[in-house]
Amino acid sequence: MECQGCTDSIKKSVAALECIESVQCDLKNQLVSVTGSCAPSSIVKAIQATGKDAIVRGTGGPNSAAVCILESHINSDTGSSVKGLARIVAVSPTQALFDITLNGLPKGKYYPSIRVGGDISRGAESVGAQYLDLGEIPVDQPNDSSNELLAQQGGYSGQAFFKRNVTISELIGRSMVLSTNRNTVDNASLVGVIARSAGVWENLKTVCSCSGKTVWQERQDAVSKGL
């Protein structure tokens, strides 16, 4: 954000989403604070629609958010192994919102589920039985042509939101699997381990201590992988 005009545009774009209660922009610290129950990816897209980029720095309160990167474990798979991202946020003490985005996949219907275990040493074949069924995600939109990697690898994208009666603490350490068959998983299924994610104001870093890169450099790395 560079000026008051930027903040006004962002406020207008985000406020137009459903389930938004308030939008506050801090020009000096380059922060946008949103109160509501809208999916995080929808807020990011609303900000990007103004010509700016955005990074989700935190969602919900302490211990009320999680994230899962869905990857292919097939060595022969072309392009990036990362095919999806799931953001999970508690919307009540007993209910969670699953915000799942998929990219670079063949067109079709996909079925995400939570598994009882988090051992992904053999991909989806070592994660155990189903713990929670999430539903169905249609993958039928062409990949974003503005993302060079996604444009090169082809395939289609999809997005879906699910609310389920489950707590974040129940999910941490388990795995999420994405398969083309609702009732079975195999070595071609995507899989990732669910990890805790920062709540609001729990992640104020501007430089990653692991890589030494700024959060925006880390953002570009994530984009290059299709996230």
Automatic annotation (TrEMBL):
Keywords: Metal-binding. Coiled coil: none annotated. One of its GO terms (molecular function) is metal ion binding. Residues 1-55 form the HMA domain. One of its GO terms (biological process) is superoxide metabolic process. Its cofactor is Cu(2+). InterPro entries: HMA_dom (IPR006121), HMA_dom_sf (IPR036163), SOD-like_Cu/Zn_dom_sf (IPR036423). Belongs to the CCS1 family. This is Superoxide dismutase 1 copper chaperone.
